[in-house]
Design brief:
With about 700 residues, the protein is of the alpha/beta class. It is built from 24 helices and 23 strands. Bound molecules: adenosine-5'-diphosphate and magnesium ion.
Length: about 700
């Protein structure tokens, strides 16, 4: 018997060329082959009498070739093979385009099954290029009268060959059950499941097989990630701290959620193992404070922390905030951003080397630094960084295994976070600091434009500031930031006209000549962006038109209106993030979603935003409506590709799989009692090791 890890070349008839083509589909081993599930299925179960077929219907008919097939050359490059086929009820005209060999394969009197789309003109029926096979063909090889798998293809492979190859793979392998019996018993046995997922006897059978594989895939993934989490490296042991001293020096009382998150992470710091923790909290939930508390704990133990922010402006803001929280304790902060002069960089390096700084804050420029005594690496707005960057900050000081604390304002349903962030523990800030008012949210059509102008005028006259967000930079070309629909909203091919940031800024300036209006977009250079943003921060601008570049946590407490054009283009979570830019001060704030897109889905999406400010609920709806692939580009997270599970639709199974994996690992961390499961988990781990850090 062949083994799962055997090369596909083991199958008779698969040579270099075929193996190469299979390789392009990611199929290298026999296991890859049988795990290459069909993309969809075609229902060819309906077998009809010719006279009973209806126009436009795809069906199978059993018929005799009624006359000798003729080859007709219509013109260069167009050859037809034509004949009639008959059953007891009637006749059908069959035509093959550019398949002259059909004339040699079929002869008058042959009994065949044809599958194809019937066309009815008057009383005459025809089929073009139907699938044809002789009566009496072995059922296993038949592609009519049953549900037929449709696979993803590559050049050099067609459906039929691939189907046969999978068939051979299934026949060659003895797949063994590896799920613990308590879970396996809920599904068809593994052998049947593989048969049914490729060659289902019925839709019901297919569904049962699918249930098994979804569970199996998520269960294995959860086991693998659980193993990884348990295999944490050792880390610097930071003595526990009594935070009441730190809290007492703050201008406000920390929320219960903040205290809890600090406790959780602080326990990691003093555990002796390396911390790998994600802090999730909605915009404005006060994540910075939690980081500050941890930095303080490390500082008291004589260690250095690094804090990485995704943009220069944010780095600067964090520098201000964190210095405010921490310098009263004598902690020394440094700031490093890309645009700093070389001499400043050199002196910062020097200061780090001489241990004259306890905290260094910066953009990814931090990655180039050597930081002695680094004990804690904080990364803000994690989803803005690629996995690689996160990894390199962690490895910046290989000797010390600094603790890793990442913060994200994109709320993800908890179970999903555990998968997306893989080997991270998760803390959640699910409470807002007190005294923050609701941001009133409305959805309107472009017909409201003049009323919106009046509203903007009034707010600005009161001294407030306004954000306007558009999905596009310039009218003609799609910009880079909008090129990836997964990142920046829904791909709508024929949606209403898109507002472009540049043009819209000009239009608004003409309509509101008394206002100071700026424009910001992703095609500008970093220092240009910073300059514009700085003017908004300092109040030199009344209104800022931008693309989604402002999404990330800049704090402008004076901003009271967020106006989003073409709101249908954005994901719900993204809209929620944008809305989080206002309502950060003492002023009553508003968010207006402008869209003329009148689909059921858009209306449902906008309604959710108007109804709730609960980021987790919004995230769940977003996940449900858009699926995880779109969530924010799962590739970025190094998530191993899932063959069959859909994290958006299969959330219940995910929860089950996770608790199942936890139970198994709690009872038997080394999985000694279930060697077959262990083998599969290790196979998966070896594959995801490269992608997750
Ligand atoms: P996040 O990064 O989670 O979006 P921030 O850390 O920027 O949020 O905090 C948002 C605002 O709330 C800041 O102005 C901060 O000073 C303030 N803040 C944080 N915690 C509290 C608290 N417990 N009580 C009152 N205000 C708070
Ligand atoms: Mg923040």
């Amino acid at each position: 018997m062949a083994r799962l890890t055997d090369d596909v070349r083991r199958i008779r008839g698969i040579g270099e060329k075929r193996a190469e083509a299979l390789g392009r589909l990611g199929i290298h081993t026999l296991f890859d082959l049988i795990s290459f599930f069909p993309r969809r299925y075609e229902d060819r179960t309906a077998v009809r009498l010719i006279s009973e077929t209806r126009d436009g219907e795809s069906v199978c008919i059993s018929a005799v070739v009624a006359d000798e097939p003729r080859l007709e050359r219509i013109r260069r490059g167009l050859e037809l093979v034509r004949f009639q086929a008959a059953d007891e009820s009637g006749l059908v005209n069959i035509t093959y385009f550019n398949q002259p060999y059909m004339r040699r394969q079929l002869h008058r009197g042959d009994c065949c099954r044809f599958y194809g789309r019937v066309e009815l003109r008057g009383r005459s029926r025809s089929m073009a290029n139907p699938v044809c096979e002789r009566e009496g063909i072995a059922p296993a090889d038949s592609v009519t009268g049953r549900i037929v798998p449709v696979y993803r293809l590559t050049s050099g492979l067609n459906q039929k060959t691939l189907m046969q190859t999978v068939r051979q793979g299934l026949d060659a392998l003895q797949v063994e059950e590896f799920l613990p019996p308590e879970f396996a018993s809920r599904f068809p046995d593994i052998r049947t499941a593989y048969e049914s997922i490729h060659f289902p006897g019925s839709w019901e059978e297919l569904q049962q097989a699918r249930n098994r594989f979804v569970f199996e895939e998520l269960f294995l993934l959860c086991c693998a990630l659980g193993r990884k989490r348990r295999a944490a490296k050792s880390g610097v042991r930071i003595p526990p701290a009594d935070f009441s001293e730190f809290y007492a020096a703050l201008p406000f009382r920390p929320t219960a959620a903040q205290r809890r998150a600090v406790e959780e992470a602080s326990a990691d710091l003093s555990s002796g193992s390396q911390m790998n923790r994600l802090l999730q909290g909605d915009v404005g939930s006060g994540k910075t404070l939690v980081a500050a508390a941890l930095i303080w704990q490390c500082f008291r133990a004589g260690f250095v922390s690094a804090f990485m922010a995704p943009t220069e402006i944010l780095a600067e803001q964090h520098f201000q905030t964190l210095s405010g929280f921490l310098s009263p304790f004598g902690l020394r902060c440094g700031l490093l951003t890309g645009s700093r002069r070389a001499s400043e960089k050199t002196s910062l390096r020097e200061a780090l080397r001489n241990r004259e700084l306890d905290l260094v804050i910066g953009t990814h420029a931090l990655l180039s630094l050597e930081i002695p005594d680094l004990a804690l690496a904080v990364t803000d707005e994690q989803h803005r960084f690629g996995v690689e960057q996160r990894a390199s900050l962690v490895h910046a000081d290989a000797g010390l295994n600094p603790h890793v604390f990442v913060m994200s304002a994109t709320p993800i349903p908890r179970t999903l976070a555990l998968i997306i962030y893989g080997d991270l523990d998760v803390s959640i800030l699910d409470e807002r600091p007190p005294g923050r008012e609701k941001v009133d949210t409305y959805c309107v059509g472009t017909a409201y434009h003049s009323r919106l102008l009046a509203f903007i005028r009034r707010l600005c006259a009161e001294g407030r500031q306004v954000f306007v967000v558009c999905p596009k930079v310039e009218e003609e070309e799609g910009s880079e930031e909008n090129a990836d629909p997964a990142e920046d909203g829904l791909p709508l091919s024929d949606g209403p006209e898109l507002r472009s940031a540049v043009e819209y800024a000009a239009q608004l300036q003409a309509e509101l000549p008394e206002l100071r209006i700026g424009c910001l977009h992703g095609l500008m250079k970093a220092d240009e962006k910073d300059a514009v943003m700085q003017r908004m921060v300092s109040g030199e601008l009344d209104l800022l038109v931008s693309t989604t570049v402002i999404e990330v946590g800049v704090d402008i407490p004076n901003a009271a209106l967020m106006l989003i054009e073409n709101a249908e283009r954005f994901g719900l979570s993204q809209l929620h993030q944008l809305r989080g830019r206002v309502g950060r001060g003492r002023h009553k704030s508003y968010c207006v979603l402008v869209t003329d897109h009148d689909s059921e889905e858009t209306r449902a999406r906008m309604k959710i935003l108007c109804e709730t400010e609960d980021g987790f609920r919004i995230a769940e709806e977003d996940l449900r409506l858009r699926g995880p692939g779109d969530f924010f580009g799962s590739r970025q997270h190094g998530l191993p590709p899932l063959h069959i599970a859909d994290l958006g639709a299969d959330t219940e199974t995910l929860a089950e799989a996770r608790s199942a994996a936890e139970r198994v690992l709690a009872e038997d961390p080394e999985m000694q009692g279930c060697p077959k499961l262990c083998e599969r988990v290790e196979l998966l781990l070896s594959r995801i090791d490269g992608t997750l850090n």
